[in-house]
Amino acid sequence: MAQTQTLAGRHIAILATDGVEQAELTSPQQALKAAGATVTVVSPNGGQIQGMQHHDKGEKITVDAELAGARADQFDGLVLPGGVANPDTLRTNTRAVDFVRAFVSAGKPVAAICHGPWLLVEADAVRGKKLTSWPSLQTDLRNAGATWVDETVVRDGTLVTSRKPDDLDAFNREIIGMFEHAAHRKAA
């Protein structure tokens, strides 16, 4: 059975840089495209970024747009993949943090997996929210005012979070549902 194009006309950004956990970028990217969304990989630098498969180098991933020219108002939602180096690097990049903060401030849906919620901490977007992540982030999230839980996927308002690559099927279903809901709300 072919998937319906429920996200046709929606434009989703994936913010990533070198060290991104490859599956946490490519799996949501493929799922969103299959649902009809236009997906743009945004990164501080153009060209390609280095994907990782846990501790090993994966494939190079093509960057579609440089962060300097990207604005939240160009997109309907945002995905923040993990890997350790990727979000750790991005959370020290003021432009990246401002990009994330702009989605949150506009009430646009944001999905983060694994170490991706580090960017939500830097954007001061987790206070009062229920989230999950890779287990090593639980103290950071709690210290930033979130309620951390060890669940496959958690949706709280316009945020969806998940723990790890093994959770990608559930994460993808939830983000597509959240982006569909946001599209219907915007159309109403």
Tags for this entry?
188 residues, alpha/beta, Rossmann fold, 3-stranded mixed sheet, 34% helix, 26% strand
What does this structure look like?
- This protein is of the alpha/beta class and 188 residues long.
- The chain has one domain: Class I glutamine amidotransferase (GATase) domain (Rossmann fold, 3-Layer(aba) Sandwich).
- Helix content is 34%, strand content 26%.
- The chain contains six helices and twelve strands.
- Strands 6-3-1-7-8-12-11 form a seven-stranded mixed β-sheet, with helices on both faces.
- Helix 1 crosses helix 6.
- It is globular and about 35 Å long.
- The model has no long low-confidence stretch (mean pLDDT 94).
Give a quick rundown of the structure.
This protein has 188 residues and is an alpha/beta fold. The protein has a single domain (11-187), classed as Rossmann fold.
Secondary-structure blueprint of this entry?
Blueprint lengths: L10 E5 L4 E2 H13 L3 E6 L4 E6 L2 E7 L2 E2 L10 E4 L4 H6 L3 H12 L4 E4 L3 H6 L7 E2 L6 H6 L3 E2 L4 E4 L2 E4 L5 H20 L1
Parallel strand pairs: 1-3, 1-7, 2-4, 3-6, 7-8, 8-12, 9-10
Antiparallel strand pairs: 4-5, 11-12
Helix pairs in contact: 1-6
Overall 3D shape: globular
- Kindly state the number of beta strands: 12
Query: Which architecture would the CATH scheme give at its second level?
Result: 3-Layer(aba) Sandwich
Sheet-strand content, in percent, reads 25-35%
Q: In DSSP terms, counting alpha (H) and pi (I) runs of 4 or more, how many helices? A: 6
Distance between the first and last residues' Cα: 29 Å
Helicity range: 25-40%
Largest sheet: 7 strands, mixed
Q: Which spans have pLDDT < 50 for at least 5 consecutive residues? A: none
Mean pLDDT: 94
Q: What is the CATH top level name?
A: Alpha Beta
